Amino acid sequence: MRLVLLGPPGAGKGTQAHRLAEKYGVLLVSTGDLFREHSRRDTHLGRQARAYMDRGELVPDEIVLSMVLARIGAPGAAGGFMLDGFPRTLNQAEALEESLEEWGLELTAALDLELDEEIVVKRLTARRVCSSCGRPYNVELSPPAETGVCGSCGGELVQREDDREDVVRRRLEVYERETASLVEFYEQRGLLRRIDGDGTEDEVTERAEAALRG
Ligand code: AP5
Asked: What is the pLDDT of residues 183-209, one digit of tens each?
């Protein structure tokens, strides 16, 4: 199975990507997580990406493309993949399509998680992530047992620099300008599956699975 996960910031892509990649046994590639990992290790790529991410802007296509295509062209992705947060521009979508064609592969579907903008802002400003293992928490809906401490590994919970309300609103603008048109791109190819992202995590996973069966 080769899947693309679309949707605005905070729609639950990362949450669902982990669940679905595990269920279908495919490689999970999250561009945001990859950039954050590089940023934590303070690599050249991490420093380049952080400057864009902290402002809520997209990382330039050439940086993203070389990183993602190297991953999914690797033998490890032969069993399929789930792309979370990629593609995000028309240029990235076309480059992905061309590479898959070259490799004789096709996408199975593009899942679009739909969520109202004000719910997005609430979810993201309430998000804290473990600085050690990356697990996300919602401090209002699913807080950790001990305030500020990760229930999985004991790491410190922090707020992502781009989860401040002003940056969240900027990311939503960038999404509308650069990424929203990909819904049409995949609809024209008969690959789009729309999923209502409002509901519990389990409900959203069930909807995604049903869309992939149907
Ligand atoms: P990225 O990390 O991909 O951020 P994003 O797309 O803005 O998405 P988020 O991680 O904020 O949210 P999500 O949809 O994954 O939701 P989540 O499951 O965490 O990208 C960050 C930056 O990297 C970009 O701004 C850009 O600069 C750069 N970048 C990345 N890819 C790029 C690309 N291809 N090209 C160029 N630049 C790129 O959930 C959010 C919160 O809600 C969590 O707290 C979670 O616990 C909670 N939650 C999840 N599901 C539910 C539910 N059903 N009910 C209640 N709460 C829920």
From this structure: 999 999 999 999 999 999 999 999 999
Give catalytic status of residue 13 as yes or no: yes
- CB within 8 Å of 101: residues ≥ 6 apart: none
pLDDT for residue 133 is more than 90: no
Q: With a cut of 80, say whether residue 101 has pLDDT above it.
A: yes
Q: Ligand 1 center to residue 15 CA distance, Å?
A: 8
Question: Active-site residue 213, yes or no?
Answer: no
Which residue, judged by its Cα, is nearest atom 49 of ligand 1?
12
Angle of the 61-72 helix axis to the 31-41 helix axis, nearest 10: 100
Q: Environment class of residue 74 by beta-carbon count within 10 Å: exposed (0-12), middle (13-18) or buried (19+)?
A: exposed
CA of 138, closest atom in ligand 1:
44
